[in-house]
Each structure stands twice: as structure tokens, then as C-alpha cells.
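Regression test case RT-17, inverse folding.

Input:
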């Protein structure tokens, strides 16, 4: 594969991964944040973590694909060659998601509570 095709394939993959990630974000928008934040973080880490195809080759590929290829197809493959960095990226993404979820809870807990007045309660009884 020449350099031009390599970059073209990466652009296609990144576009498809971005569309998949945005679709997943949209599908989980109404879920509880303690479920959606970690799922989004893991999806981001899995889709966008690159790793070297071979140790001597400068070309990269998605780490999940290299892990699957090394683990399922290559006879003497080492799935941890790309699997360990992928696992590290997932753990870091989960830590970031936990921090974001905690900061969201903190901000929501600091909001003043809005009390209903008698005028607004009466309006709902007549509808």
C-alpha cells in the first residue's frame, strides 16, 4: 500500500468512527449519566486508539483491529502487543468519564432549588 492509499484509508476509517461515535452519543443522550459516560468513554478509546502494525513498520492501525488480528489469526501473535495499550486507554477514558460525572454531580448539587409557587400549582390543576 502506498502512502496516499494509507492516508485515504485512515481518513475513511476516522470518518466512519466519528459517525459511529456521534450516533452512539445520540442514542445514549437520555440514558443515566452513570451509564452513558463510561460507555462513551470506552467507545472513544476503542475507536480512536492507534497502534503500530508491526514493530519495524511506521504505519499504524486501530489497536482493536491489531489485537483481534494478533489474537485470532496470527499463530504466534501477541494480542497484548496492542491490547495492553488499548486497555490502558480504556482505563484512562474511564477515569476521565468518572471525573466528568463527578463534576457534573457537584455542579448540579450546588444549584439552588426552585420552589413552586401557589400560582403555578393552581394552573396545573385546571388543565
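Golden output:
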Amino acid at each position: 500500500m502506498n502512502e496516499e492509499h494509507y492516508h485515504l484509508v485512515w481518513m475513511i476509517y476516522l470518518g466512519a468512527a466519528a459517525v459511529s461515535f456521534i450516533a452512539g452519543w445520540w442514542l445514549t443522550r437520555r440514558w443515566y449519566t452513570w451509564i452513558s459516560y463510561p460507555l462513551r468513554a470506552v467507545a472513544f478509546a476503542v475507536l480512536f486508539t492507534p497502534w503500530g502494525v508491526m514493530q519495524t513498520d511506521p504505519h499504524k492501525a486501530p489497536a482493536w483491529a491489531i489485537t483481534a488480528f494478533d489474537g485470532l489469526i496470527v499463530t504466534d501473535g501477541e494480542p497484548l502487543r496492542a491490547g495492553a495499550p488499548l486497555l490502558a486507554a480504556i482505563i484512562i477514558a474511564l477515569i476521565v468519564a468518572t471525573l466528568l460525572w463527578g463534576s457534573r454531580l457537584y455542579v448540579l448539587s450546588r444549584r439552588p432549588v426552585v420552589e413552586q409557587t401557589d400560582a403555578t400549582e393552581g394552573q396545573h390543576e385546571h388543565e
